[in-house]
Amino acid sequence: MPSLITRTRAIYNLGNRATSADENATLDALNAAVSKAIENYCWRAFSVTSLDELYPGNGRRELVLRHYPIVSVERIAGAPTAVLRVTNASASVQRATVKVTATGLELIRVASGVSTTNTINFADQVTLSALVSAITALGNGWSGAVADASFNSRASADLRALQGAFHAKDFTPELKVHTEELSSFTVDTEHGTIVRDAGAVWHGGLHYWRVIYRAGYDPIPDDVQEACAQGVAQLFWQTKRDPGLVSEAIPATISRTVIRDMPPTVKLLLATYRNWRV
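and the corresponding structure tokens:
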């Protein structure tokens, strides 16, 4: 995750003071930490991020995505369909699993207490039929099959992670692909909503729709940058003194407290960006 502001922007809220190499290292660490804290507080990524999410049907024309504003929609597909079957039938294997990762398939077998992992990359086996051949070529009880010949040329990378580490010892789990591409829709970029054509609704059950899109801000809004800079400045000055010191009077009055929350001004700046839909 990139930081929300640059070191130069952080130093601006420190009165443009000249900073040492050690202070620069501290600022970079604080910048990363405060940026992450702000995104956690607002339940959203601010920088433009690529997202691959599943949604259920809601019976309405509008589908509200979890992140916004939308920069682009790369793909919308529905109807998760079993396209690939994988099994391990070796008599010497006591346990076997198959798992879809972001980049390929991970096949694990356990024989006499020894675990062996084989990884097949989608980039090396670009179609489902090629993936099946690579699975079967592993030997040691592994075999694969495409559920229907019409799926042979489908992209192996269309298998979505994470589907689970499925039991495959003498059992045939089915790996799924969203096979029905949505060809017409309207995108409300600002509000993060995708609207179906008149008369059509988002039908289907759990995880029926797969939406691949990019969302976030470029550049980061000024008020979010100011919130981050204020948070970094507060923590930076804390490194320069007793972190619990609030006030000290001579001869003998000292007051200490522990910082337990974001400064009110930071919360105020971020109020409109909190993502209540997540």
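(Above: one complete record from the training split.) Residues 50-215 form one domain.
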